[in-house]
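anyone seen this seq b4? input:
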Amino acid sequence: MYYTGKNAEALRAVLSNAPLGSKNQQIKDQALNITLRVLLSIKGSQIDEIVQSLDPELIDVLMKYVYRGFEIPAEGSSGHLLMWHEKAYSVGGVGCIVRVLSDSKRA
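predicted toks r here
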């Protein structure tokens, strides 16, 4: 799905299937890498529309991956992730950030 240009569907799929409860760090790392590739492949002009289309639960998962992405910066990724953070915050509000930071199930 990622390679066919259907970025919104790919993002929804990776967020819906996030292995947040997994104890296998390798699986979580692979999911993080895939999710970051999808997030970074989406143009800045598309972010708002995509975030608006997500369910509140998926906004929280998205925010978890944004914060994890901040932990492993790559060239150009931080600015793009900040755009995702801004749009997710505008939809999810402070509650989204509080839920992510207080949740023991990490991305």
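The mean pLDDT is 92. Residues 2-102 form a domain with the Serine Threonine Protein Phosphatase 5, Tetratricopeptide repeat fold (CATH 1.25.40.190). kinda curious what u guys think
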